[in-house]
Design a protein that fits this description.
Mean pLDDT: 77
Helix content: 55-70%
Number of domains: 2
Radius of gyration: 45 Å
Structural class: mainly alpha
Order of helices and strands: HHH
Length: about 130
């Protein structure tokens, strides 16, 4: 195992060339440079370093992808339920209208009641006395 020791008074500067794709922002290019530099130092010096920011970014990217998939499934289920609800609501309204029309038709078919003949009060009294 090769271990390099640098005196504290010296400043160590190393240039790392990044030949990967260009980033639209300087922050993305800077992060990529940092990852490459860290990887190179880790490989050359046999260090056990973890790039926590990169690991976290992978974790959150996977979590985001998972949540995006869940959202797509839930959105599709909501669309199906909404469609079924509207269909059932329309059928329910149509059935209510048909029932109301059927009731009105039945009421119209009933014969009108004949008015009771007017009775003489004298007839009522004679029935009670008899």
């Amino acid at each position: 195992m090769w271990i390099s020791r640098f005196p504290r008074s010296e400043i160590v500067v190393q240039t790392v060339r990044c030949s990967s794709s260009q980033f639209p922002t300087s922050a993305g290019a800077s992060r990529m440079l940092q990852r490459l530099a860290l990887r190179r130092i880790r490989d050359e010096c046999d260090l056990k370093l973890k790039d926590i920011n990169y690991d976290d970014s992978l974790f959150y990217k996977n979590l985001y992808d998972h949540q995006t998939t869940n959202y797509a499934i839930l959105s599709a289920q909501y669309g199906n339920l909404s469609w079924e609800y509207n269909l059932l609501k329309d059928e329910y309204v149509d059935d209510r209208i048909k029932l109301r029309n059927a009731i009105v038709e039945c009421v119209n078919r009933l014969p009108a009641e004949q008015p009771a003949p007017a009775a003489d009060p004298s007839d009522a009294m004679s029935n009670q006395l008899a």
